[in-house]
Amino acid sequence: MTIKQLYSLAREYDIPRYTSLRKRDLIFAILEAQAKSHGLFFGEGVLEILPDGYGFLRSGENLLPSSNDIYLSQSQIKKFNLNTGDIISGAIRPPKDNERFFAMIKIEAVNYRPPEAANERVNWENLTPDYPRERFILETEKDILSTRLIDMFAPVGKGQRGIIVAPPKAGKTTLLKEIANGVALNHPETYRIISLIDERPEEVTDIKESVNAKVIAAPFDMPADKQIKIAELTLEMAKRLVEYGYDVVLLLDSLTRLARVYNIQVPPSGKLLSGGVDPAALYKPKHFFGAARNTREGGSLTIIATALVETGSRMDEVIFEEFKGTGNMELVLSRQISSKRIFPAFNLQLTGTRRDELLLDEGTLKKIWILRRMLAGMTEEEGLLLILRKLRETENNEAFLSLIDQQKAKT
Fold this sequence. Notes:
By secondary structure, the chain is of the alpha/beta class. 39% of the residues lie in helices and 20% in strands. It has three domains: 28 residues, no CATH class; 82 residues, CATH 2.40.50.140; 277 residues, Rossmann fold, CATH 3.40.50. The protein is globular, with a radius of gyration of 23 Å.
């Protein structure tokens, strides 16, 4: 359905401010209005299929079972070829005398598309992984230097698997918020998810209020089995959206804490790595992180995850070493620089993206190489301060990179 047709329906149902809504939100508003016009309720949630074959739509903020869940029958699941993680929208009815949950009586949309499209999608296991070939532009404002640096020194492509190597108090939370807002501003069509594992409750509130993204949180005071369930259902939701052709960005804070939670929960394998890490506990976090990919038949899943280092915990160091080299983008934060209150505290010499020639044009790539050769002769602090000073003097990255052409012309 075209945007003009959607606008026509929006006017018909008197939907306020419909021109300011994204297409996905506009479709949801129209479906909700249609259900209400027939005297029905409208509901939406993330499907979790239980072993008995029926399922529930988890609609809470953390996707855990609650009294607000919506029952979905086994016949509907089979009819539309639904899987765990699908986002289902439709008309629902209140529970009858002997029932506890609302029940869905008509599915209007699956992952914001007509339900019949579910039979035509390519399943996740059959999608062909490919290198990221299309870049996310994260640069927003002149004074937000972190995203400007990322666009040049560690460009993020659609399907990137990135690690932010983060010592304590180096600014990783602020960095994640700026990345999320950069994607939201420059790529509003992208589905954005922030997954917070074992996080402080006040940090969860701060991120929810600061970013334009779906925040799914498992605070540190939650049992490990529930934290794992939240993480796994979040990943399944992202996979289903990719099958439908969406570009999804999932920001995970943190990969280290996710591995810790699995280390508590998995049955002992009888083997133990240094720091008390069970090798079996690392399989599921690697499966989570390894899901990031660009696909040829569907959309893309970009995962940028933080990894904690220099915490004083041997377990954290072992977990980081296990994931080192599994990503195709690495953003290294420096404790030495952040301790001097210099932000963003990037170690530019160690920060980079593999196969960045697929994301940057030839002219930009050559200028970045010149910058890197220049930084190689400086300390990490001197190099960062020089780049930050020049960035503050220019309005955007294009103007900054043009300084290199001017310098070459003089010489």
